[in-house]
Amino acid sequence: MPKKGGINLLTERISLCMIVKDEEELLPQCLASVQGAVDEIIVVDTGSSDRSAAIARQHGAVVVPLEWCDDFAAARNAGLEQASGDWILFLDADEALDAAAREQIRSWTRVSGCDGLFLNIHNYTGSGQQGVTVNPVLRLFRNAPEHRFEGRIHEQIAAAICHRNPQAAFHVTDMIIHHYGYQTAIVERKDKVNRNVRLLQQAVEEEPDQPFHHYNLGVEYLRVGEAERALETFGVARKAIDPAVTSYAHLLFKYEVRCLQHLNRWQEALDRIDAALELFPEYTDLMHHRGVCADALGDVDRAELSLREAVRMGPPPPIYHTEEGIGTYQTWYTLGRLLEGRADLEGAVDAYVEAVRAKSSLLPPLYRIFRMMRVSGQEHQIPVLVTERFALGSEEATHKVLGILEQSRCYEAALQLLPDVSSHPSGEMRERLSVAEAMLQIQRGNWKQARLKLEPVQRKKGLLVISSARWLERLNWIEGKEVGSDDPLASWLKRSSQVGTALEEKSVRKTGQKVGLRATKKKDRDSGMTETFSGAAYDGWQAFGQMMEGCVQSGQWKELHSLIQIGQRQLHGEELGAGDTVRMEEIENGIGKEKGKEIEKEKQMAVEPFPGASDTLAGTSWMVKGLVSAADRHLETFAQCTDGQRHHCWPVVQHIRLELPGVDGFES
Q1: Nearest Cα to 175, choosing from 117, 133, 124?
Q2: Stated pTM of the model
């Protein structure tokens, strides 16, 4: 084979080396991600009791059984002994090679004159929806007998490579490995933290002068929130390293800062950042955190300057561990919150817009923009802002914006943007748009306009005829008209309003106090325009909440109070049809025995009086949303202009309204 400088230019074979134990859930994804990218797979199985070994063999791997001895380096090296490739790629079962990296990896090994290549590990934490941290790690290196891992845990290969060749060269690539192993569910299931702490404490006992062990132990303490203990451990590591030559020094400083922030020792954190920036002036993460610390200390001018400097710097060079969005969308959002707190709403909107431009799928900035513009009386400008500053290139994007506007209570803006959902709507889409507009009108308290949209849909008897008919029944109830029996929610509201006074009086006599709220652990579901477009029927509590919102927006406080009382009784388990034990003789005030028997029969036939009635967490959530909306409306009225002049308390009231609880776009 033709070679240049000892490097085979035609065939650079790659061996994937792994160690596994009970990884049948994630292993298939990992092995599928390297198909076509590697020439052989060596899997060291350290005692799996599941199908891990069989899955590995199905993917063509050579499986090497090895008894586990609390030593990751030993297990890694057992795999290296079997590898025949020119290059070694090592992965864990909870990782996956990015699709682009799968296409690029052979090009890198073919032309690289380096001894090792760094790939960017994208670590997904929490639920996996909170963004990622990015860490460049040596994962691809030349195969040689002298290249063997060192370290009981967090095993390293670089030292062995440099020992063999002091002039060894390394390169940081743009290839990505996705790491899912520190998502909350996986960490808890595998008890990773306790395992890591145990092995690291053992490593510290064996090599007390090795700062890398102390550093990694500090990371584990920080991971579980033991900030004081982590800070102490990081301090031991920092005193033993030379920051100029230690690859993880920048990260050690940042982790110390995070510990100090967690402990509310903001000035110490700021001092540590300034010292670290002397060593690592290009490390954007430090500049970002300097802004956060300065803000916490009340120095908003320095905070703003630091955050603006961070976005000017952009993401740090690839040699640094960073968090996705530092220097871009995460920093812009933090700056927006800072400016919002300074009452610079125009500046805050600009910062939030930049955050969305940096990451178009980011939702929290949109929630903040729409809420600010509503609270400051600029809701009418939202459609222009959306059209001019955001690229809504698809119906899906428009649906998403409409849903955020609805949840932000910007109904007028949503109604203006609704026609833009489809340029050439089909008959079915026109019906969906009519129902969507009806939902927005209901939440504005415009019952008549909602009827005008729902009645034609009901007459056409299309896919949305049932949901339209049910909503018309609900409007009948709230407007005091005759209610039929087609909608369980409307029927329940009718019955509840008839017997409500008697039940409430009996409850007060019995308990001597007002009824309360109780909740289960069922997940609450936020409303969204996408549900209307898909034709999904709103469940009972969601519809209940929309009716409350309509009463708030139209100032129908008597109707709102009635809904609150009815919903409160249902959540307390005192409503008919909710599985309570109200006796027939307890039904008072004009409801006869025959009517009572009919109600009792209905109660026995249905577990729930309306769809979703038993989901008390959802019910509590929707009622709280209604109460928050009512409070916001009262505050708005309180600070309204009189004689062309704003109330002198307007700035304070505006600030309170911006901080009221509400949907913020962050995943729970």
Answers
A1: 117
A2: 0.83
Q: Are strands 132-142 and 322-323 parallel, antiparallel or unpaired?
A: antiparallel
**3-class secondary-structure state, position 205:** helix
Give the list of residues 6+ apart from residue 144 with CB closer than 8 angstroms, or none: 164
* Count, residues in the chain: 668
Residue 140 in 3-state DSSP?
strand
| Pair 338, 304: CB distance under 8 Å | yes
Are the beta carbons of 636 and 657 closer than 8 angstroms?
A: yes
**Nearest of 438, 439, 467 to residue 453 by alpha carbon:** 438
Q: How far apart are CA 66 and CA 46, in angstroms?
A: 5
CA separation for the pair 655, 651 (Å, rounded):
6
CB burial of residue 297 (10 Å; 0-12, 13-18, 19+): middle
What is the average per-residue pLDDT within 270-295?
Answer: 98
| Separation CA 450–CA 411 (nearest Å) | 13
Nearest CA-CA partner of 444 in 355, 549, 557: 549
Inter-axis angle of helices 616-638 and 650-658, nearest 10: 170
Q: Which residues of 421-448 are buried (b: 16+ CB within 10 A; e: fewer)?
A: beeeeeeeeebbbbbbbbbbbbbbbbbe
Rounded to an integer, what distance in angstroms lies between the CA atom of residue 314 and that of residue 331?
9
Of 172, 193, 173, residue with least CA distance to 181: 193
Q: What is the pLDDT of residues 636-666, one digit of tens each?
A: 988 887 777 788 888 899 999 999 999 998 8
CA 665 to chain centroid, in Å, comes to 8
| DSSP designation for 512 | S
> Cα separation of 339 and 300, whole Å?
9
Q: In the block, which residue shows the tokens 């990505």?
A: 176
Residue of 445, 408, 440 lying closest to 421 (CA atoms): 440
pLDDT for residue 39 is more than 60: yes
The whole-number pLDDT of residue 144 equals: 97
d(CA 455, CA 632): 32
- Cβ neighbours of residue 342 closer than 8 Å, sequence gap 6 or more: 300
